[in-house]
């Protein structure tokens, strides 16, 4: 979400793609666009497709990336949601030609390994971020280790998150974390409403870092761990690191460069 991004300047396709798998969020604009595009270009199953076209918002795009991952298909998002930071604008233009001209970004996710209070281990990946958050009115207490070195013996907070470069513009930014350029091999580590140490604002870590969160007083102060849309309740330890063995290709119109938009976001009012 690191989601480290391998930037490319050459299109993915050598010819105009014709086998398109459309997926649409259950909102009126996405459904209306879906019906129109399917009627015009047809629709095939994931296992038969050359490309996936996602109609919705950023959240639905993340869900689509997870669905398409086993098929190694590039994904082209069309904004039918509210923000659409990771999507292309809705257009009535020639969609196959737009797909042919689009440029790829290879996204490497974070891998979360969360151990719950029963000792069960849960694994999930995140293209956006992994975060821990309190389950009750009480703040959580946690210890932070980076590459097996204790960096913070006790942090009292509502939660903490580790974001990918693209994810740095989402929850991380709302929590006052730094925006990270797509080609930076960095992971922002950002506290959520830190109480003690009150002035700690987080850290920038190398993308090779292995980050371990250990929950202190987890029975009294329970916390959940979330990787994109996968939530694990009552965790006692969470290990997060970049997953370099898998990746998803996200497509963008040449005039809708994601890297440029992330730089511009740092100067937005």
Given the C-alpha coordinates, what overall shape results?
A: elongated
What share of the residues lie within helices? 10-25%
**Element order: H for helix, E for strand:** EEHEHEHEEEEEEHEEEEEEEH
CATH architecture of the largest domain: Sandwich
Helix segment tally: 5
Instruction: Please indicate the percent range of residues in DSSP E strands (runs of 2 or more).
Output: 35-45%
Q: What does this molecule look like?
A:
- The longest helix has 14 residues, at 28-41.
- It is elongated and about 55 Å long.
- It has 269 residues and is α+β, with helices and mostly antiparallel strands.
- Mean pLDDT is 91; it is low at 1-5.
- The two termini are 24 Å apart.
- It has helices at residues 28-41, 58-68, 95-101, 171-174, 258-265, and strands spanning 4-7, 20-24, 51-56, 75-79, 103-108, 110-116, 121-126, 129-134, 140-146, 149-163, 186-196, 203-206, 211-216, 223-227, 230-232, 235-242, 248-252.
- Strands 6, 7, 8, 9, 10, 11, 12, 13, 14, 15 and 16 form an eleven-stranded antiparallel sheet that branches. The protein has a six-stranded mixed sheet with strand order 1-5-17-4-3-2, with helices on both faces.
- The chain folds into two domains: 4-108 and 246-265, Probable inorganic polyphosphate/atp-NAD kinase, domain 1 (Rossmann fold); 110-242, Probable inorganic polyphosphate/atp-NAD kinase, domain 2 (Tumour Suppressor Smad4, Sandwich), CATH 2.60.200.30.
- It has five helices and 17 strands.
Name the features.
single chain; 269 residues; alpha+beta; Rossmann fold; Tumour Suppressor Smad4; eleven-stranded antiparallel β-sheet; 5 helices
